[in-house]
Amino acid sequence: MTTFRHAHTRTTLFGGTAALALALTACGAPSSGGSASGDGTVTITVGDRPSADQAAARAFFDRRVQEFHQAHPGIRIEPSETVWDVQTFQANVAGGTLPDVIKVPFTEIQSLIARRQVADITDELKAVGLADQLNPQTLKIVQGRDGRIYGVPVLPYAIGLFYNRALFEKAGLDPAKPPRTWDEVRTAAKAIAEKTGQAGYAQMTTENTGGWMLTAQSYSMGGSIESEDGSKATFDDAATRNALTYLKQMRWEDDSMGTNFLYNMNDIAKDFAAGKIGMFLSVPSAAYQAAVTNFGMAKEDVGLTAVPTGPGNDNRVLSGGSVEIVNPKASPAEKAAALKWIRFFDLHKYIDQEAAVADAKATAQDGGAVGIPRLSPVAPETFERYESWIAGHVNVPLENFTGYTGDLATVQLKTEPVRSAQEVYAVLDTVLQKVLTDKDADIAALLAEAVATVDAKLARAPR
Q1: What is this structure's pTM?
Q2: Mind giving me the DSSP string for 57-77?
Q3: Secretion signal: which residues (predicted)?
């Protein structure tokens, strides 16, 4: 997608793109490297080591490995540069070279569970003391139909609506009361356009980001993009038609969407920072960093609220992120070692005050944002404690984000389409562009044509 789509943090590194299709062979390949030596030392292979051309990230990863060895002398980590990729992952599973620990996108975990390509880690989570520290909300994503747990969600996100508080004030709107419904978005967008001359609402439409955000809009109206098994497109429904209708009305009836209908993530954040956009949908951490850190927007002008709702809303919000999985052939000792590594590498700052403060200080010193609201990978009480630890280092206006944070604990998370999501998004990009550039665009016909195109792609996609 873009450099903002999956932002790296100081303490966690993503492995892969969060919406690629999964192609796996039947379960049965052995673990690539997990073993126990005669002295009782457990050795596991860990994927997602940054490549040599990512010198700083690689050095950080290697330093954490050494620190882990010091803290856990009975476990040895063998780093691997293997990351999630639809083709290499398939080959690794087939060839028995899958690392004992590797990150996969949210979208893939249920397919992995169904194919028995991932370890059941329920008992080991309890044994190492992680079971009660993880967020029950995100754990639902890694739970099988049997109620067992098959992964550890890390860096989860939920889409939100950004709004320019300064433009709201200029338009006579109350920035403390951002829109809660798409009807209210339309009203606010029209007011901003009429009273400030800027785009009241803007939409990403290129580089697959248009389909991505249209998915969020469809979900906000109770819709879906694919069937649960990813075999059929389902977006030719009332929800997606309604989402496109709102956009068509804002564009052609209200003239409240400006003149740029080819935005990607970078450009929409740039124009938002420049005061040219009143509202847009995006990922909180990526968009805030882009607008404020990269493009110099005054942080006091940034507002963030929950995705507005529309007809058919069922309280579902588009979410994504990565899941740490364990090789299905790992022994109980190897699974326990893997979870200790995941806790140390991905979750350490949430459960250790010294690590939390050190990370916050370093992030602020590097010019980064501390305290951007986000879905928590850990339990609410654990996250609240973490927030108290870093409170003195928060450098974002938390009071401007209450419309978003107030809803996080109650929404139901819905992941991206499970198969060929990027191809689906690319098709939906063209639908959006047509609706926003052709006043006579027939939404029903466009969606019917798009469904046929996507169904053909899904029929060819590996399963």
Answers
A1: 0.87
A2: HHHHHHHHHHHHHHH-TTEEE
A3: 1-28
